[in-house]
Amino acid sequence: VRHERAVALGGGHGLAVSLAALKHITDTITAVVTVADDGGSSGRLREEFHVLPPGDLRMAISALCEDSDWGHQWRDVLQHRFGGEGPLAGHALGNLLIVALWDLLDGTVSGLDLVGRLLNARGKVMPMAGEPLEIVADILGHDPHYPDVLTTVRGQHAVAISPGRVSAVRLLPPDPAPCPEALAAVADADWVFIGPGSWFTSVLPHLLVPPLRQALNDTPARKVLNLNLDVGADETQGFRAADLLRTLATYAPELRLEAVVADPSVVESLRELDEAAEAFGAELVVQQVAAPRTVGQHDSLRLAAVYRDLMARRA
Fold first, then answer.
1. pTM of this prediction?
2. Is it the case that residue 233 has pLDDT exceeding 80?
3. Which long-range contacts (CB under 8 A, 24 or more apart) does 298-304 make?
């Protein structure tokens, strides 16, 4: 196991698989998690208790669980979702536990640390901002009957399920309170891994928090961007891999990257993608990182091999 300080940015399943990969390589991991979710259990708890949405934070802690019977058992407890039709239906137990600890303890990160101790988590989890955020997007063709009309859509869930093409995205509030621990982790990191994940609702939002964007620009850490496998689907309908990088450049023009990791399946034009990566000063790394039997999902072991190779070559 290496000892580089690694920070992973994102949310949901994409961040979880990146964290699972990092567990194979280093014992110093920090997850910085998006806090704009407003759907499902997270959305209900956010609205009722005026707290950060806990779902993506819970998934990150679960991904960092110790690889032992104890760690896996507590991971499954955290991920357990209640069925039925009563008031608990749809809630994940981990979401309720996190909100309970926030109620009892002083400090968001200290509550997450305590949950991590239950799982003997191999790292720390913290939010990208100190307050819940709302995603607002301008979407072309949000109403399929008017494909050429630009509509302003509010809320992470509404943006994620829109059938249109996102042309711009922003946060409310536009200058949110940062999470000091997250800024410190980025400043102290040796490596920062951005993505994979829902592009406009999990990956780009980190660059829309001004102090976090500045910390990413200023850190001496080497930064790696993971491109999604489902380019052109869902939030990024009509996009190609190079378009994702161009979009990133509009929101973070000063960002420099060490590498851009892409599965061969998303490379339509190697030259175009290479040029888009070069605009960030990045090496384009085209490697098999997709799970062999699960469409649209990264394989944590393949991703770990790419991460390890990058770290070893830059050591």
1. 0.96
2. no
3. 298/14, 298/17, 298/18, 298/21, 298/196, 298/226, 298/229, 298/263, 299/17, 300/17, 300/20, 300/21, 300/24, 301/21, 301/24, 303/17, 303/18, 303/21, 303/226, 303/261, 304/21, 304/22, 304/24, 304/25
